[in-house]
UniProtKB/TrEMBL annotation:
<dbReference type="InterPro" id="IPR000215">
    <property type="entry name" value="Serpin_fam"/>
</dbReference>
<dbReference type="GO" id="GO:0005615">
    <property type="term" value="C:extracellular space"/>
</dbReference>
<feature type="domain" description="Serpin">
    <location>
        <begin position="10"/>
        <end position="165"/>
    </location>
</feature>
<dbReference type="InterPro" id="IPR036186">
    <property type="entry name" value="Serpin_sf"/>
</dbReference>
<dbReference type="InterPro" id="IPR023795">
    <property type="entry name" value="Serpin_CS"/>
</dbReference>
<dbReference type="InterPro" id="IPR023796">
    <property type="entry name" value="Serpin_dom"/>
</dbReference>
<dbReference type="InterPro" id="IPR042185">
    <property type="entry name" value="Serpin_sf_2"/>
</dbReference>
<dbReference type="Pfam" id="PF00079">
    <property type="entry name" value="Serpin"/>
</dbReference>
<protein>
    <recommendedName>
        <fullName>Serpin domain-containing protein</fullName>
    </recommendedName>
</protein>
<comment type="similarity">
    <text>Belongs to the serpin family.</text>
</comment>
<dbReference type="GO" id="GO:0004867">
    <property type="term" value="F:serine-type endopeptidase inhibitor activity"/>
</dbReference>
Length: 168
């Protein structure tokens, strides 16, 4: 069981608690969005835009307990999301990847696999970049994350990963 002191926002509007765990690098945070109701994840997911737009965490600190967990997330075939972001030609025979190898048209992308690994245990939170949580200690309040929740990772204020934990 991961146990840490962390900053918290209790959102009445979303009926959830936001628990922000900073990584050692100072630029990355792991945020748990824990619905107040044990079966509240579905309702929370319906408001994902509001969840991801929440930024004002204030300065209230709590003691959080999170069951030891590992998340391995793999996503293949990223062609559609990358095309949405403007990456268009790397899969075609006319791809110009000559800056990496060969001549234009000789090299193209076949498949892009994204793998992520997040581990939460007694020592903190570890991500694929092998960082850990810096813990801060202040006043005592307790929150136990023992039911389904959303989480996201921000790097320099930009959300780079969103997921959910549903099994216990």
């Amino acid at each position: 069981m991961l146990s840490a002191h962390t900053v918290v926002l209790d959102s009445v509007q979303l009926d959830a608690k936001f628990l922000e765990l900073p990584f050692d690098d100072g630029s990355t945070t792991f945020t748990i969005v824990l619905p107040n109701a044990r079966d509240g994840l579905v309702e929370l997911e319906k408001q994902i835009d509001k969840v991801l737009a929440t930024t004002d965490f204030g300065q209230k600190y709590v003691q959080v307990s999170l069951p030891t967990a590992s998340f391995k997330i793999e996503r293949t075939l990223l062609e559609t999301p990358l095309k949405t972001l403007g990456v268009q030609n790397i899969w075609s025979n006319s791809a110009d990847l000559s800056g990496m190898a060969g001549v234009p048209g000789e090299l193209r992308a076949n498949r892009i696999l994204q793998s992520s690994y997040i581990k939460a245990d007694e020592t903190g939170v570890e991500a694929i970049v092998d960082t850990s949580v810096e813990l801060r200690v202040t006043e005592e309040h307790n929150v136990v994350a023992d039911h389904p929740f959303l989480f996201y990772i921000k790097y320099k204020g930009i959300i780079v990963f969103v997921g959910r934990r549903v099994r216990y």
